[in-house]
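TICKET: design request
STATUS: open
ATTACHED STRUCTURE:
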């Protein structure tokens, strides 16, 4: 069974319980506030819940009937499936998860009032239906706006990294950090061309690509690599291997990127002479299915010899960051996390995503001793075709 279907079904199981809780809470509030007949309202809500949760059922049925040939249709190759099944499922999931947290807090408040302030309970019960509907409308509107912004626009993020005094000749050197372009039926060659045009408009001296050229299969390898070949930088482009590059077909990825003029390295260091200074990029292949042993990692991450040392890796693994920092590296660039992809919470207060369980480096800048870790949200998608609190981006790093 394809991993996309497995993951969708895994998400579907807890989502059913969440939908029941959120739906029942809204149903009770609407009954209190409106003159709608309970039976009619119940039927409308059941139909709506069935519609937004059709994706797992249809996907599983198609797979059991047609086999793996049906998978690309649910990975963006058929727009109608995305618009009528995939987008409603994932947008409803985000709204429901956000609401279950807020509705849960309201229920806790009601319980506490009933136990410790019973005189206030009547007033609370009178106001809570309107509050529930207001919260549901506000969260839904906010979710639509944020998903549209984060999914279909690409932001430019400027990050400065300090240079040691003996490498001040490198000041002003600009590095474009990109990752997870993941060419597929959603991240089409046309979208990639616009992305490359945005990168080129920043006039980088060097492009570092942290891997994942395509999402799956081989259909989009050549076209995606060809588009990335249009990247323009004074010192060229260097790429690492990502998880999906291996899941798809690593040998084809390597060949396609090489033909496009992009240097792909594995577990080795590339040296670049820049005026009177030097930049050394150590490219490490660190993925779920291929990663060096600890002993091999000790050999790959060499002790600094006076260059500005950078680690380029797909996964922002803490073991690599800790070792690289101890060896005198100044910068580690990575992708993989998609910034969390779908991160639930309140920006500036807390955001939680599955990526938080894998690494503490999810999105943005981090410091490990004297080394800076820069993790980019990337461009493409893996499973959910939306982004939420994790906007697609191009990161521009300027050495100062």
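STATUS: resolved
RESOLUTION: sequence designed for all positions
ATTACHED SEQUENCE:
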């Amino acid at each position: 069974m394809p991993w996309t279907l497995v993951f969708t079904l895994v998400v579907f199981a807890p989502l059913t319980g969440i939908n029941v809780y959120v739906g029942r809470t809204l149903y009770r509030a609407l009954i209190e506030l409106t003159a709608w007949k309970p039976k009619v309202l119940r039927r409308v809500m059941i139909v709506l819940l069935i519609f937004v949760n059709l994706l797992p059922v249809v996907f599983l049925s198609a797979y059991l009937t047609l086999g793996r040939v049906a998978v690309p249709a649910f990975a963006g190759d058929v727009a109608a499936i995305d618009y009528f099944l995939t987008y409603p499922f994932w947008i409803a999931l985000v709204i429901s998860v956000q609401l279950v947290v807020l509705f849960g807090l309201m229920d806790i408040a009601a319980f506490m009032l009933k136990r410790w302030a019973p005189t206030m309970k009547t007033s609370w019960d009178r106001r809570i239906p309107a509050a529930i509907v207001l919260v549901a409308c506000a969260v839904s509107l906010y979710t639509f706006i944020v998903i549209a912004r984060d999914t279909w626009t690409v932001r430019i993020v400027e990050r400065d990294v300090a240079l040691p005094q003996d490498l001040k000749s490198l000041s002003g050197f600009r590095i474009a950090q990109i990752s997870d372009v993941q060419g597929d039926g959603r991240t089409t060659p046309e979208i990639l061309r616009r992305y490359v045009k945005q990168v080129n408009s920043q006039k980088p001296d060097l492009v570092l690509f942290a891997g994942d050229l395509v999402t799956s299969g081989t259909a989009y390898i050549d076209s995606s690599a060809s588009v990335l070949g249009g990247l323009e930088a004074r010192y060229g482009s260097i790429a690492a291997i990502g998880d999906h590059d291996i899941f798809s077909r690593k040998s084809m990825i390597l060949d396609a990127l090489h033909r496009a003029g992009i240097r792909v390295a594995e577990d080795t260091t590339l040296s670049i002479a820049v005026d009177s200074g030097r930049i050394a990029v150590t490219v490490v292949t660190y993925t779920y299915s291929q990663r060096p042993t600890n002993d091999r990692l000790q050999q790959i991450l060499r002790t600094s010899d006076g260059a500005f040392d950078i680690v380029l890796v797909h996964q922002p693994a803490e073991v690599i960051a800790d070792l690289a920092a101890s060896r005198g590296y100044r910068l580690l660039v990575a992708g993989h996390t998609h910034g969390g992809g779908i991160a639930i919470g309140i920006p500036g207060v807390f955001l939680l995503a599955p990526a938080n369980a894998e690494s503490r480096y999810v999105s943005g800048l981090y410091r490990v001793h004297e080394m800076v870790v820069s993790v980019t949200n990337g461009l493409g998608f893996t499973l959910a075709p939306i982004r939420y609190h994790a906007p697609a981006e191009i990161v521009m790093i300027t050495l100062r």
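CLOSING REMARK: The chain has a mean pLDDT of 92. DSSP finds eleven helices and 14 strands in the chain.
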